[in-house]
Amino acid sequence: MQQSKPVMTSKDTSAEAFAELGNETRRRLSEKLYESLRHAHQQGVRDMSRRELRDYYNQQTGVWLELCSVASTVNALLAAGRLEEGAARRCSVSPRQRDVVPVKCKAQQQAIA
Q1: DSSP tag of 82
Q2: Which residues contact 102 (CB under 8 A, 6 or more apart)?
Q3: How do residues 37-54 score in pLDDT, each as one tens digit?
Q4: 103, 85 in Cβ contact below 8 A?
Q5: What stretches of 1-113 show up as alpha helix (H) in DSSP?
Q6: Which of 5, 21, 53, 99 has the most CB atoms within 10 Å of its CB?
Q7: Which DSSP category does 68 fall into?
Q8: CA distance 88 to 13
């Protein structure tokens, strides 16, 4: 009788690879991507897909990141409440013409004086 192998999805391997990064490396990557998205907002960009964010970050820094690293980092920022999802739309850089759920920086509440 043949034993079944556990099925590993790309989501599993992305999460596994992300978890293997040290805490400091993950923190720095989170801050860099957050600041890149914040900069894009200041330039008038409403929201970005993970692929758009990766390309924007590459244009700004010259550093290429794997899409799975960006996706894992964005998911962690969403879980931490620093980003929020926007309305579904077509990704401007994806070779597949599918709808994506872009992300944006969560609006900062102003302190009441």
Answers
A1: S
A2: 47, 48, 49, 52, 85, 86, 87, 89, 91
A3: 999 999 999 999 999 999
A4: yes
A5: 10-20, 23-42, 50-61, 67-79
A6: 53
A7: H
A8: 25
